[in-house]
Amino acid sequence: MENNVLIILGMHRSGTSLTAQWLQKCGLNIGDNLMPAHFSNKDGHFEDMDFHDLHEEIFRNHNIPYGGFENIESFKPTCEEVNKIADLVNKKNTLYKQWGWKEPRTCLFIDEYLKLIPNAVILLIIRDYNAVINSLINRDVNSIEQSLLNSGRLGKLRLLKYKVTKGKKEKRKLGNRYSLALKHYYTKLLKLNSPNIIHLKFEDILINENKITNDIESLGFQLNNKIKLSSIIKNNYINAKNKCKYVTDRQSIEELQARLLSL
């Protein structure tokens, strides 16, 4: 019998953690060794560390910094690296007849995964780019500010100086970094070639939750403990619509996002 595999696919900070948490509670195995909670994701990332660690190992081989945001324009794994990916997929298939995973870096490896598991179901999540880039910037800036605040008795003074002298400059730099990365991720996702894609606009996830689980089950999966997404979602998490003023090349990103949402 062929394995049922679900790939939860989307850019970093697109709501993939929430979706993976929900589907895990519904009965989908999304990994035995999940990334723990962090200040940037207090409920947990629900990210399979087997995939995370392999992707980061490959990134290091190609001088790609952690996360997969830079130096990714011409990235392509080697044959040896593809064999490691195949070994991981085969291991999971041996252990489980029904399984899935969430790991945003998967977007950059999706061609290789679909060659290995062409019948995998892809749950493609698209969140408004303003919310994505705002979230990424806030995550990094909060980390810097927390580090300064905890840097000793002068921590509050260092934090204030940073906010006054470097804060906006840092946000502009991060905005450019994540705008470029988002364009590449979106361009990669637009080239998806699979017969089994469930498209999801993250802002509509609550009104479509029954359709999502029904679509997943119609493709061969069994979700034996379906729960309401509203039981785990945080207030106002979905409806964050603040415009990100640090986005660069906004027109290109808007065009790419519109194309993805129209698929």
SSE layout and pairings?
Blueprint: E1 4-9, H1 16-26, H2 49-61, H3 79-95, E2 98-102, H4 110-116, E3 121-126, H5 129-149, H6 155-165, H7 167-190, E4 197-201, H8 209-218, H9 250-261
Parallel strand pairs: 1-2, 1-3, 3-4
Helix pairs in contact: 2-3, 5-6, 5-7, 7-9
What do you see in this structure?
The protein is of the alpha/beta class and 263 residues long. The protein has a single domain, classed as Rossmann fold. It is 48% helix and 8% strand. Strands 2-1-3-4 form a 4-stranded parallel beta sheet. The radius of gyration is 19 Å and the shape is globular.
Which residues form runs of ≥5 with pLDDT under 50?
none
Distance between the termini: 31 Å
Instruction: State the order of secondary-structure elements, H for helix, E for strand.
Output: EHHHEHEHHHEHH
Query: Helix count, per DSSP?
Result: 9
Helix content: 40-55%
Give the spatial strand order of the biggest sheet: 2-1-3-4
Q: Average pLDDT value?
A: 93
Looking at the structure, the CATH topology is Rossmann fold
What's the level 1 CATH class?
A: Alpha Beta
Query: What would you report as the Rg, rounded to the nearest angstrom?
Result: 19 Å
